[in-house]
Structure formats: C-alpha cells, structure tokens
Amino acid sequence: MPITVLLVDDQELMRMGLNMVLDAQDDITVVGEASDGAAAVAAVRKLEPDVVLMDVRMPVVDGVSATAQILESGVASRVLVMTTFDLDEHAMGALRAGASGFLLKDTPSEDLVSAIRSVAAGDAVVSPKVTRRLLARFLDDGPAPLRDPEILDVLTEREREVLQLVATGLSNTEIAAQLFLSESTIKSHVGRILTKLNVRDRVQAVVLAYETGLVRPGS
C-alpha cells in the first residue's frame, strides 16, 4: 500500500509544489490538503493519513496546536513539521507536542521523500546539527532541569550513555563507532530506551535528555 500524505500549508504554491514532488513517487499518495491547522485536524480525522506534512506558521490554528490536537486524538498519523527557519521556536513546540521531526522548507526533494518514508516506517527525522542548535537555543533555561532526572533511573548505565550520544546528534553508525559496538546493538539499545522512557521516537528521547539535564545545551 502506498504511504498516504496530508499536505498542510497556508501557501497554495507551496502545496502545489509538494504535491508535484510527492505524486511523482510510486509509493506515496497525497490524499488531501489543508490551509490551516483547524482544517488539518478535521482532515486527519476523516482521512487518517500515514504522514501529515505540517507547516508551523498558519492562520486560525497554528501547526504546533494542530500537531498536539492530532496526536492527542489517538490517530496513528505521524507529523513531520516543515519550517522556514532552523532556529524556530514553533518547530521546537511541535517537537514537544509529539511531532516525529522537522525539515527546513528548502530541503532537497529527494531528502523530503526519504524523510516521509522514514517517518511512515516509525522513525524520527531531524537533522542532528539542527537538533543540537534548536535544543541549545530553546532548552537553555538555566542549571535546573525542566523534568525530574529520576525519570532516567529505569535506564542501564550503557543505555544512559547511548542516550547522551543520541542527544548530541550522533547517528547510530557514529555511536557504534565511538562505543566500539555493532550498529545493530546500538539500534537495540535505542529501542529499549524508547520503550523504558515511554517516548514515541528518537526526537522525543532527545528532548527528554535535555529536559532532565542528562545533556546540557552546548555540551
């Protein structure tokens, strides 16, 4: 079955361009469009797309609020946020609301297609470098953690180490090389981390690592 996508952007030309790129793919089908967050929430309830490609700055209801409403509704749809600026507080809000990642609007079309496929498969998509900049910018609220660090007590010492490296923006391949372990072992560690912390994906684990003080901005 093809991956179904809902396009959400207040700019018609942007939606047209995305539609052209995605409809050229054999395994992706655009099932609907929305020009604001309220319409997006209604469309998700009706269409239940695999992936919602969500703009963040829109009239009526913004993309952050729409993302939160979509994910709180319990639908299986996953949200991939698109933003113009890599240091965008709205994008950070969307990640906290449960988005599976975000991309810049000038992302090459082949990377966008790859990101949609990854998100549909259950992975998270955020550029590691952009993740570090975002979290360093918007979670730097002083020395006190935003969440109780004891949340991480369920992790083993190795899992905490892996989470630290994930939070600094390293890929599984890079973590494996640094810890002298196989990539499959790192993938297993990451899977257990997500399960133990009850987070949706890698992005949410990174946010939690910063909010509990396991990793500090700039570290």
Automatic annotation (TrEMBL):
GO MF, one term, reads: DNA binding
Supply the CDD domains for this chain: LuxR_C_like (cd06170), REC_NarL-like (cd17535)
Q: Where are the transmembrane segments?
A: none
The organism's superkingdom is given as Bacteria
Fetch the InterPro entries from UniProt.
CheY-like_superfamily, NreC/VraR/RcsB-like_REC, Sig_transdc_resp-reg_C-effctor, Sig_transdc_resp-reg_receiver, Tscrpt_reg_LuxR_C, WalR-like
Q: Which residues carry this modification: 4-aspartylphosphate?
A: D55
Alphabetically ordered keywords of this record: DNA-binding, Phosphoprotein, Transcription, Transcription regulation
Q: Which GO terms describe its biological process?
A: phosphorelay signal transduction system; regulation of DNA-templated transcription
Pfam families given for it?
GerE (PF00196), Response_reg (PF00072)
Span of the signal peptide: none
Which segments constitute the Response regulatory domain? 4-120
The segment(s) forming the HTH luxR-type domain are: 148-213
Against PANTHER family, the record matches this protein to: TRANSCRIPTIONAL REGULATORY PROTEIN NARL-RELATED, TWO-COMPONENT RESPONSE REGULATOR
How is this protein named in the record? DNA-binding response regulator, NarL/FixJ family, contains REC and HTH domains
Q: Which organism is it from?
A: Rhodococcus koreensis
